[in-house]
Structure formats: structure tokens, C-alpha cells
Amino acid sequence: MTKAVDLFYRFLELLLILLLGGMAIMVFVNVMLRYGFNSGLTVSDEMARYFFVWLTFIGAVVGFREYGHLGVESLVALLGRRGRIVCMILSNLVILGVSALFFWGTWLQLPINSSMKAPVTGLSMGWVYGIGFFTGAGCSLIALERLFRLLTGRVTDEEVAMFAGEHMGIEKLVERA
Fold this sequence. Notes:
The protein is an all-alpha fold. About 80% of the residues lie in helices and about 0% in strands. The radius of gyration is 20 Å and the shape is elongated. Its main location: membrane. Part of the tripartite ATP-independent periplasmic (TRAP) transport system. This is TRAP transporter small permease protein.
């Protein structure tokens, strides 16, 4: 099961690369066409915006899995293991609540977004903003899984260190660059 989950996140990372690359290519080509040939592709502006929305929301799920979001690490670093675990539980409860609210808000907004069409592509805005389902569900599932492991005592010391921001030593930072 772990391999399947890791494979899924590798797919998401590849998708993020494709979205960012597609966005950059569309904007670059459009700029070149505008300044070089006094024309442009109207669809590229719109799709670049949508790619950016999808990139942001998919990236939020990937970042949450990797403990990449902002945190008050200076406070958590002062606490012992028990205090860190309490902070992890509280943090994941808040994230679970906000993610569920985000999912529910996307659900309530779906009929309105589905009835609206994008001005250039004619794409239903439900496809654009429907990414909130993925983000809300993805972050909720990650938070639930973490809460389960925290409450059953299955959390590892490495995860606690990651939560406290101690996982990014100079070696890891150089490796990511």
C-alpha cells in the first residue's frame, strides 16, 4: 500500500511539473507572438491561469504530505516529544476541519461554477474550481491518517522531527536544490 501511495505522489509531482511547464510555455509563446508578430493566442492566457490554480491546489496536497507548509517551528522545537505530539494532534484537527470545510464549500459552489463558462475556451468553471474537491479530500485524508497514527502511538521519531522542522538539515536542503 505504501508503494501505491508513493507512486500516486510521484504522479502528482510529475503533474505539477507538467502544469508549470505548460504554463511557462503558453505564456512565453504568447509573449513572443504579441511582441514579435503583433498577434497572440487568447486561449493561452486563460489556460495559464487555470493551470496556475490547479498547480497551487495540487501543490498544497503534496506540500502538506511533505510537512512543507508554514508552521511555528520555533515554538514546537522548544517542546519535548509529548508536547510535539499534542501540537501535531491539534494541528491535524484544525487542518481536518478546514479541509472538510473547504470540500463542503466547493460542493456548495459547484452548481454555480458548473453553470458558468470560461470566456475563451467555453470550459465549465466547475472543472476549474472543482480542484477544491481534490485538495479538500486529499488534505483531509492525510490529516485523518496522521491522527490515526498519532492516537494509536504509531508515529515515528522522524515524523515528529519533520513536524518540528528538524528534518531539513543542510544535507537535505542541498539535496533538494
